[in-house]
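RECORD TYPE: inverse folding
INPUT: structure tokens
STRUCTURE:
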């Protein structure tokens, strides 16, 4: 999930204070600005043809809000998000030719509430055993999804190549928030055995690893345990995802990690748009300068239409290079999304091609760069 605690977008904060339950629901509703794209039939066809030929990967997603399935201890935020709808999401992904997505559990889902200033924050701390139990619930939902054949297996590039051939969508298991690991390094390996291939080490809750970018930092960077967890993820073959992590955590992770990493869902700050969930050029280049990737997110932060999001993707490509950019939609838990339907997935390659990128370049952004990153997580 992609919200900000500080609520730099003042209007959103004001709404939240007045109508917490309604406003929390509205956080996840599309902005409603339309796509803003004007594509010809031929341009649309070109995007669809590219997706039929090349694997595409959404590097950060919560399709159908599966992480809420079988959740017994609801809070105002999870209640506002409503009933999960995995079947609809998977149908849309098939229609849109999404080859794979990182299906993210939400480690701190049970802690989240609307903050007084807008966005999300944590309402309380975990009870003993709670984080681990909730990880197991959510991973159980994902395992059942694959066991039923609703989604294809997504353990490696081979699985994703097979999903493309079979016109299926592969679920790459992931977790947003490393809270569930606690101080038990062996859980990193358990997660890998469960099929987890990426962990976003921070979310909204400052945890044993470090502080999120949406809180005033209490610690300069990674904790000693956080450094051990990054090393353990390297050794297990799990992608370190630095979305939501503070600059200090990111700087330390780059120093510690022996593998390239990613920031799965963010965008660059602009002179006219600043927000705690956006990153500086220096922040992005820390990760991309070491072979990593940055996923561009279609959130309502500084973007009102899909076309404006395409501009953000192009800005990233210009800044860090086409080999280091990916797409991370945060579907279906994104903050006021400007792109909210997997059936529209072909609009992204269509628009990028229409803006002058070549087929090879668009193929990298749509999935190739993530597949390279995944292949680089050699277990050691
Ligand atoms: Zn997020
Ligand atoms: Zn998310």
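DESIGNED SEQUENCE:
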């Amino acid at each position: 999930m992609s919200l900000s605690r500080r609520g730099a977008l003042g209007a959103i904060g004001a709404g939240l204070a007045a109508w917490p339950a309604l406003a929390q629901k509205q956080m996840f509703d599309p902005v409603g600005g339309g796509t803003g794209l004007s594509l010809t039939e031929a341009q649309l066809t070109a995007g669809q043809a590219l997706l039929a030929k090349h694997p595409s990967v959404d590097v950060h997603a919560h399709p159908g809000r599966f992480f809420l399935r079988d959740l017994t201890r609801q809070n105002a935020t999870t209640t506002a998000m409503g009933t999960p709808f995995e079947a609809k999401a998977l149908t849309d992904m098939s229609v849109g030719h999404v080859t794979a997505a990182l299906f993210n559990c939400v480690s701190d889902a049970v802690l989240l509430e609307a903050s007084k200033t807008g966005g999300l924050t944590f309402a309380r701390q975990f009870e003993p055993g709670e984080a681990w139990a909730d990880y197991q619930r959510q991973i159980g939902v994902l395992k059942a999804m694959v066991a039923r054949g609703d989604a294809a297996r997504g353990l490696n590039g081979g699985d994703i190549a097979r999903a493309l051939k079979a016109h299926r969508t592969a679920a790459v298991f992931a977790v947003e928030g490393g809270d569930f690991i606690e101080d038990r390094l062996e859980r990193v390996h358990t997660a890998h055995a469960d099929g987890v291939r990426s962990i976003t080490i921070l979310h909204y809750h400052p945890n044993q690893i470090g502080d999120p970018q949406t809180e005033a930092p209490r610690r300069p960077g990674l904790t000693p345990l956080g450094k051990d967890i990054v090393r353990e993820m390297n050794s297990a073959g799990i992608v370190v995802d630095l979305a939501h992590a503070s600059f200090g955590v990111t700087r330390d992770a780059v120093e510690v990690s022996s593998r390239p990493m990613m920031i799965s869902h963010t965008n660059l700050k602009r002179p006219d748009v600043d927000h705690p969930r956006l990153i500086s050029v220096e922040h992005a280049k820390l990760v991309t300068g070491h072979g990593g990737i940055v996923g561009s997110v279609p959130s309502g932060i500084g973007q009102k239409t899909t076309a404006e999001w395409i501009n953000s993707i192009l800005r990233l490509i210009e800044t860090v290079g086409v080999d280091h950019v990916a797409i991370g939609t945060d579907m279906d838990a994104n903050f006021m999304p400007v792109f909210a339907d997997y059936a529209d997935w072909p609009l992204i390659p269509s628009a990028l091609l229409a803006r002058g990128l070549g087929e090879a370049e668009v193929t990298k952004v749509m999935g190739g760069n993530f597949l390279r990153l995944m292949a680089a997580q050699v277990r050691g």
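NOTES: The two ends are 31 Å apart (CA to CA).
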